[in-house]
Amino acid sequence: MRTISPIGPEVACRRVRVNLGSRSYDIVVGAGAISLTGHELQRLGAGRPAAVLSNRGVLRRFGDALVRSLEGCGFEVQTLTVPPGEKSKNLRQVARIYDALGAAGFNRDGTLIALGGGVVGDLAGFVAGTYMRGIRLVQVPTTLLAQIDSGIGGKSAVNHPRAKNLIGVFHQPALVVADPDALRSLPPSELRFGLAEAVKYGMAMDRVLLEMLEGFTPKSLEEIVYRAAALKARVVEEDEFDLGAREVLNYGHTVGHAIEVALPGRFTHGAAVAIGMQVEARAAVRLGLLAEADAARQAALLERLGLPVMVPAGPPGPLLEAMQLDKKRRGGRIRCTLPEGIGRARLGVEVPDTLMEEVIMECQESSQAAAHPGGA
Ligand SMILES: NC(=O)c1ccc[n+]([C@@H]2O[C@H](COP(=O)([O-])OP(=O)(O)OC[C@H]3O[C@@H](n4cnc5c(N)ncnc54)[C@H](O)[C@@H]3O)[C@@H](O)[C@H]2O)c1
Ligand SMILES: [Zn+2]
Question: How far is 218 from 209, CA to CA, in rounded Å?
Fold first, then answer.
């Protein structure tokens, strides 16, 4: 897994292989990796036409390096942009992109390259999975969340007025290029939200990653990206189509999603997941899966990273209702992925409604127990 890339003389990258039979691919991780994209794509025997999907701000920062690398290897590149933000993840933008590709005579030889965060990655994934029944997709993720999570694994979706991510398709990329240098320009808040997902991987799958996060400095980002991307790769290999094992990635998300639904606009996804992990960790403590000290350790880490751990004061009703809605889809029970110690998780643990209510209240701003999660 830990190999130095043979190509691109000035840039040393490591590779993580995602083994999925004929759909296998590499995740290339390393500072400066964006400038290797052309070589990497050439190695795959990709045809000449390439389209880069991004937004203006991201394209301004990284477009040059990417396009130069592609053109240097003989690719014909067109760039397409969508406005930044979640509001672009819809079928209207998808149709616009189909039109642009069609107008340029883009055919099945073509490669669609996503340059940006999870929004651009999901849009490009959906388009690449459906245009002419599927064309080659490359992910060049530029947010931490996209480098360790959304850019890997082939799940893509756009939103529908009825629900987020309602319309989607599985379509694996042929290559992922994760350049940690790109994260330098990320607003601190976006970095924190990505770190929340990294804490999820640490708690649920990898004690060493958790320890790395406890000593987090911007310098350690490359190692964090490499390690977390490798964890995502293993999970995807085990469960390409999201039928079971990927559920390990749901830690913090049962409660996190409920927070996003019940308190719309109040927290970003990463912040909601941080609070969700703390509530779920308390549930794990109460169920005898996690030591009190480990829940406190997680809370200290999240706080050190600038992430919230407390549920806003107020009746827990709306949160529980949001989980009830979710629960309908899961056979009538609230189920969570819960940590069993640090670095291991148990999937599909049933959490009784009464216990969920109690741990939400324990984690509320007004509650003593939550203010001192390690205390008596
Ligand atoms: N497909 C999956 O498996 C999966 C998994 C998790 C999340 N997602 C999706 O990912 C999306 C969220 O992704 P996100 O958090 O990356 O948000 P995002 O794509 O909206 O990016 C966040 C912001 O950062 C900007 N940005 C990106 N890279 C930058 C850089 N290097 N420097 C400065 N600014 C930069 C973007 O333009 C945007 O404004 C959601 O739509 C979510 O549904 C998908
Ligand atoms: Zn998430």
Answer: 15
